[in-house]
Amino acid sequence: MFRSSVLLNICVVVLLSLAVARAQFRLKHEAPRCIVDGAPCTHYDWRRVGPSPSETPVRLVFALKMKNLDKLDAIFHQVSDPHSAQYGQFLSLHALRHLTTDAHAVRNVTEWLTQNGILDFSSTGDFVIAKTDALTAGRLLNTQFFAFQSPSTHLVVHRALNCKLPSYLFHHLDFVGDVTTFPQTSALRHRHRRKGVNDTTPVTTLSLINQVYQIPSNVIVDERATQSLYESLGQDFSDDDLKQFFKDYVKGAKPPKVAKVVGPNDQSGCKADPNNCGEANLDVQYIMAVAQGSPTTYWSMDSSTNFLDWILAVASDPSPPLVHSISYGEDEGADDASMLDRFNVELQKAATRGLTVMVSSGDDGVAGASARGNSSACGFSPSFPASSPYVTAVGATMGPEMQQTEVACTSDNGGLITTGGGFSLHYATPDWQSANVQSYLSNAPQLPPTSEFNSQGRGYPDVAVMGHNYVIIDGGQKQIESGTSASSPVFAAMVSLVNAARFQAGKKPLGFLNPVLYQLTSDAFIDITSGRNNCAAGDPGTQTCCPDGFTAISGWDPVTGLGAINFPSFLRQLLDV
């Protein structure tokens, strides 16, 4: 049978509908897309070095179309809605794969690979991942691979400018990854280190967190309440720093051990350069201090991967941790629509298995990190994956560490960072928050012109937690960190405390949290009504403050979400679900 080979747009993945939607809210600093008419990639800080050597290892990720997505969506809502009779009736990995795997798609793609001499591949049912060399991959896809280097990170990846696939595979694939898509070197760890620290610097500690949010105990006795941290960009954590942190700031507790490390973790560099470990140490020390006894996984991803690679790794685990925290983000507008959509589907699948994912909302207000020291970059740049409706986005507050009222953390108020928030350009407002969003849009003061942001988009964050002046041990030394990077793992640990209590009460874990979160009564939260997120992160007097931003008001807002956590009521209501 003759099977024609034509240019397959899903290799590049630029959807017209998304382009039209984004054109309505185009950012002043938006750069051209990565691949334009075969030109070298510039959007992600990549420069073409030259042709890839023939023997260069290349990975090809084939995202297979799935079946029964309507049924998946229905099950997702049933197990996540507290008013559903199926609430908490989660699926096993086997049942989920049986539901969504299209065996015909798997067979056609794997047979095609085999026929072309590629035998090193694996299939999860929804993805086929092949490993080969640049020469073979180029022949397979009718293209040529080149070496690209990031001047800012010196990372080298091997990619093509286009690719071709047999037309009969079109209806089996959503996209082909790691061919024309590039890692975002602009992906950020959401933290900011304070300079000039002394003994009088006001700090956030575990004892203050417990006091402000009224957490009566940090001890978890049920080891089914598992949790995990996403790490990347070469970050490592130190066991020695963890031990010292517990000795200095978690009185009476035995220093814990991270239960499992997935991926790289080189602890030797922490003392040589604390920047190698600041983010990871912050995450590890506080998630394990707030939820002591929760088996904690350190899930480290290579810098050349993306968030979709992480969720695929988690999805392949037959018994993954229940609670996940991500303290990283990137500009939503720089990602392809197909990847954003597939990430959402994978999050839905994770939710049907009872997993909860928290994500830092960002440290640069509405404009994003490109506005740091650059007023021409002012605008509205949502942070992904915080902008996904299927994660719980966590913003930052400040105040109690200085014995002041809790307010939104903003750099123009001395917070070093400004809690991220706003509205997605890609994802629509989900049903569970639509009333909250409409109320905000109707009542908010100083609301930016709706022509400047997507008022129909998913609003974030969902909640907020203190994020200013966290004391950590890094490289054996006391350091002070600020950012939503602190807020997300602390809130994730609170969810682990709730999961443990639910297990003890004979109940299932929470799973996807947002539908329940937006139905809790107001006394589960500390309403944050002061702050505006128009400034980027920066030291006092140096930060960029843009004309537009969102203002915190009573109730939900795209600055601190529903508010901070009143843990006794939060726990009580979630135990009753």
Could you please describe the fold and organization of this structure?
Strands 12, 13, 14, 15, 17, 19, 20 and 23 form an eight-stranded mixed beta sheet that branches. A four-stranded antiparallel beta sheet has the order 4-5-3-9. The chain is an alpha+beta fold and 577 residues long. The longest helix is centred in the C-terminal third of the chain and has 21 residues, at 484-504. Helix 10 (307-315) packs parallel to helix 11. The protein is built from 15 helices and 27 strands.
Please describe the structure with a list of short key phrases separated by commas or semicolons.
single chain, 577 residues, alpha+beta, 8-stranded mixed beta sheet, 4-stranded antiparallel beta sheet, 20% strand, disordered N terminus
Strand content: 15-25%
How many strand elements? 27
- Provide mean pLDDT, rounded: 89
Report helical residue fraction: 25-40%
- Tell me the radius of gyration: 23 Å
Q: Quaternary state, please?
A: single chain
**CA distance, first residue to last residue:** 57 Å
* Dominant shape: globular
Q: Which structural class is indicated by helix and strand composition?
A: alpha+beta
Biggest sheet, open or closed, and with what strands and sense?
A: 8 strands, mixed
**Low-confidence stretches at least 5 residues in length (pLDDT < 50)?**
1-10, 12-43
Q: How many individual helices?
A: 15
Sequence-ordered SSE layout with sheet pairings:
Layout: E1 5-7, H1 16-23, E2 47-51, E3 57-64, H2 69-80, H3 93-100, H4 103-115, E4 121-123, E5 127-133, H5 134-140, E6 145-149, E7 156-160, E8 164-166, E9 173-177, E10 188-189, E11 192-193, H6 206-213, E12 227-231, H7 239-249, E13 260-262, H8 269-272, H9 278-290, E14 296-300, H10 307-315, E15 323-326, E16 328-331, H11 337-352, E17 356-360, E18 383-384, E19 392-398, E20 407-408, E21 422-428, H12 431-443, E22 457-460, E23 463-466, E24 470-474, E25 477-482, H13 484-504, H14 514-517, E26 525-526, E27 564-565, H15 567-576
